[in-house]
Specification:
The complex is a heterodimer of chains A (383) and B (354).
Chain A (H helix, E strand, L loop, with lengths): L9 H14 L6 E7 H9 L10 E8 L1 H4 L2 H13 L3 E5 L14 H6 L3 E4 L3 H10 L4 E8 L4 H14 L4 E7 L2 H10 L1 H6 L6 E4 L2 H6 L5 H7 L3 E3 L4 H16 L5 E3 L11 H10 E9 L3 E10 L8 H4 L15 H5 L31 H9 L13
Parallel strand pairs in A: 1-2, 1-7, 3-4, 3-5, 5-6, 7-8, 8-9
Antiparallel strand pairs in A: 10-11
Helix pairs in contact in A: 1-12, 2-16, 7-13
Chain B lengths: L30 H15 L2 H4 L15 E9 L5 E2 L2 E2 H14 L4 E12 L4 H18 L3 E9 L7 E11 L15 E4 L5 H9 L17 H10 L5 E3 L5 H13 L2 E5 L7 H10 L13 E4 L4 H9 L8 E7 L6 E4 L5 E3 L13
Parallel strand pairs in B: 4-5, 9-12
Antiparallel strand pairs in B: 1-6, 2-3, 4-6, 7-10, 7-11, 8-10, 9-11, 12-13
Helix pairs in contact in B: 1-4, 3-4, 3-6, 6-9
The chains are: A alpha/beta (383), B alpha+beta (354).
Chain lengths: 383, 354
């Protein structure tokens, strides 16, 4: 594949790995968090851990929108779809399997008669509403800053068209507030139990918000940030740049992903988002609990297309299993295998916590791609 | 296909195969059903067993020492017609391949149709004709069948279940539990073509890509492979769940691990690009005309040559090795140089693909 394979070149990766090994100071450890699920996926999918020296550790951050979506928000969608036979609830495919209360998921609600459909974009959901005027089409919108502008656009289009049978159940969340929560967590800030030497900054999110919002973390918290693309060579290069910053005592925002990210980002998209959305005072994140000013809600002029207002939906918080370590894993305090539930009752088929929900989550990525590392190879043939 | 041939020719208005539609009468057991069977199914599948018009086919016993092999496969693919095939030929290939990968010689098929009221007879005729062609090409006749009609909204046009009978020569033992550490793992060609052809065809995912389903009957290829290398231990067609899921099945049946080389796994560039776009992994996408073969390492090159000499195995490749690992882990050396697991598919990647 042209323009893709170039970023997955094994020979270049080997050279980069050698450079990283050369530059990493063997007298110390390095712990970097890749915020985005996309990076987590690339690291697991391409086996990048195998190419890093033992003293460079990657912490998988909370940047997987499906993972951090609280159960209570999915419950809202399921309750609506089950209670109102005239509602067609549509969302992205990976949302449909997320387990919610009462052993339900949107997919299981569908099996119980709810009208649930998978769509590939907000625009598909809007088109569905136009095609099915007799039905109430509700788009369950999730995602970070990358998927927010398309949702804003369909809301504006619905308003322009006067499309009365379309609405959005908005769950859009913001990257910088989540990073801040991690930096403010006691383990990182006060106790110093979690060495966190820097961040690989988001790829697609940064195309929208630009590189500027991260300057605060570099300056205030003295944490280097390198914005990187989602291809495995991008990740390797970013790790090398982070190691250099640490070695040189710098804490700056650097941009590895210059082919797509600028300092100010996409101003048109930002304007569109602020026209349609405003900040929520607080929003629950699965694994991080309540994070202030970390999510968006639909502004009053668009209230007719806000499913929460339109159908009077109430959020009820649902706690995770008591033994679930997702919060600690997201902050880098623990690894998936530290969790008692991992691989026993919590599996990709039956996820108990946020990190197991999508393949971009830390636990699911380790389960799907890396668990062979934990379990010694047993030679011989099983009965 | 009972009732076939029981209506008197010349006294019945022929089926309207242009504008007609399936109605509940076609499944009611009366004259309409007899006519549908006679004019459509019996005419298309004509063979000495079906032509008798009895409730079941009477078949000769296999040769002495041979054993019978039976497989059944239900087909619910949506859309019914896709680039490279349709539900008709797919329903023949699916069952023929299930027999072929046991090392059996496919002999006969039985077919049952669940038709939805309102389904176009013209489309049904196209499907039946494609199925008849596939059956003739494969040399495996449809010797008995059944038709039911369900009310509108209770089906999706047509569902087809086929059951196949094959003969297994004495002494032949091919099965998922036979893989041994050190064995070579081969595939017969590019992976993911069928699943991505279906995906491309679905209305919600219209993108321009020349991807055609690989649906094909594999018993000819299997015969050529077994002639060249009788020591083949495992054969399996990686349908739903793709290569990854099928290898995990074999690994767990045999109590072994596997190590694959990602760079050696053949994937068409357009399939790779479509998968990239949709966030799918071609290793988990369905195939309908490919097989996985596992044989002793010393026979691998001979087997590969035999596969490549057959039109359905031109792009065959040796993709990995069976390892001693009772955990049954399938691992892959990525093109990037790292290692990871290739796990069972969790959830479904694409629904209704076959």
């Amino acid at each position: 594949m042209k323009y893709v394979d170039e970023f997955r070149d094994g020979a270049l990766a080997a050279k980069l790995a050698a450079a990283i090994a050369r530059e990493a100071d063997t007298g110390r450890g390095y712990a970097f968090m890749e915020f985005c699920g996309g990076h987590t996926h690339a690291i697991s999918r391409y086996g990048i851990t195998d190419l890093l020296p033992a003293n460079v550790r990657m912490i998988h951050g909370p940047g997987c929108p499906v993972c951090v979506l609280p159960i209570g928000r999915i419950d809202m969608a399921i309750r609506l779809a089950l209670a109102r036979p005239d509602v067609t609830l549509c969302s992205y495919g990976d949302c449909l399997r997320v387990p919610a209360s009462d052993g339900l998921s949107l997919l299981k609600a569908k099996a119980r008669g709810a009208n649930v459909r998978m769509v590939y974009s907000a625009a598909d959901a809007l088109a569905l509403a136009q095609k099915l005027p007799e039905r109430e089409v509700v788009f369950f919108a999730i995602g970070f800053e990358t998927t927010t502008p398309p949702t804003a656009l369909v809301l504006r289009q619905a308003q322009a068209l006067g499309l009365a049978n379309f609405s959005v159940l908005c769950n859009h969340v913001l990257t910088p507030s989540a990073i801040l929560t991690i930096l403010e967590s006691p383990e990182v800030r006060e106790l110093g139990t979690v060495p966190l030497d820097g961040f690989i900054g988001p790829a697609h999110v940064s195309t929208i918000i630009g590189s500027r919002p991260y300057a605060f973390f570099a300056e205030e918290y003295r944490k280097p940030v390198v914005i990187a693309g989602f291809e495995p060579l991008d990740v390797m290069q970013a790790i090398r740049m982070l190691i250099r910053q640490v070695n040189e005592g710098r804490a700056e925002v650097e941009n590895e992903f210059t082919r797509a990210v600028t300092e100010e980002g996409n101003l048109k998209a930002q304007a569109l988002v602020s026209e349609v959305f405003e900040l929520r005072r607080r929003f629950e994140w699965r694994g991080l609990r309540e994070v202030p000013y970390s999510a968006l809600k639909i502004r009053a002029p668009f209230a007719k297309w806000d499913a929460e207002a339109k159908f009077g939906l109430e959020f009820v918080s649902v706690p995770d299993h008591r033994a679930c370590e997702c919060g600690a894993i997201l902050r880098g305090v623990k690894t998936p295998t530290d969790c008692k539930l991992f691989g026993t009752v919590c599996t990709p088929e039956n996820p108990m916590g946020s990190c197991m929900v999508s393949s971009e989550g830390a636990c699911a990525a380790h389960y799907n791609y890396g668990r062979f590392r934990d379990i010694p190879v047993v030679a011989g043939t099983a009965p | 296909m009972s009732f076939a041939g029981t209506i008197r020719k010349g006294y019945v208005r022929p089926l309207d195969l242009k504008h007609g539609r399936v109605d509940l009468g076609h499944g009611a057991g009366g004259r309409a059903m007899a006519q549908l069977i006679a004019e459509l199914f019996a005419a298309a599948f004509a063979n000495e067993h079906l032509d008798r018009g009895d409730d079941a086919a009477v078949l000769p016993a296999p040769a002495p020492g041979e054993r019978l092999v039976v497989a059944t496969d239900a087909h619910v693919v949506s859309p019914l017609f896709f680039p490279g095939g349709d539900i008709g030929c797919l329903s023949v290939h699916g069952t023929v391949n299930d027999l072929a990968v046991m090392g059996a010689r496919p002999l006969y098929l039985a077919a049952s149709f669940i038709l939805e009221e309102g389904f176009s007879l013209a489309e049904l005729a196209r499907i039946v004709s494609s199925m008849a062609h596939a059956s003739r090409d494969a040399g495996v006749p449809v010797v008995t069948g059944d038709t039911k009609v369900v009310e509108q909204g209770k089906g999706d046009g047509v569902f087809i279940t086929t059951t196949g009978i094959g003969a297994l020569p004495a002494g032949r033992d091919i099965g998922g539990a036979n893989a041994r550490p050190g064995d070579a793992i081969l595939v017969s060609g590019t992976l993911g073509d069928h699943g991505m052809a279906i995906m491309a065809q679905r209305e919600s995912l219209a993108f321009d890509a020349e991807i055609t389903s690989d649906t094909a009957a594999l018993h000819g290829l299997v015969a050529a492979m077994l002639e060249a290398v009788p020591t083949i231990r495992v054969l399996r067609d990686p349908t739903r769940g793709g290569l990854a899921t099928t290898l995990n099945e074999i690994a767990s049946q045999s109590g072994v691990g596997m190590e694959l080389d990602e760079a050696a796994i053949p994937v068409l560039p357009q399939v790779a690009a479509a998968c990239e776009l949709l966030g799918l992994d071609p290793l988990y996408v369905a195939n309908e005309g490919k097989l996985i073969a596992i044989c002793p390492a010393e026979d691998a090159e001979r087997l590969l040559a035999a596969m490549r000499a057959h039109p359905l195995g031109e792009r065959a490749a040796r993709i990995g090795t069976v390892t001693a690992d009772a955990n049954g882990f399938v691992q892959i050396r990525t093109t990037f140089g790292g290692r990871r697991m290739v796990d069972w598919l969790s959830g479904e990647q694409l629904p209704r693909i076959c």
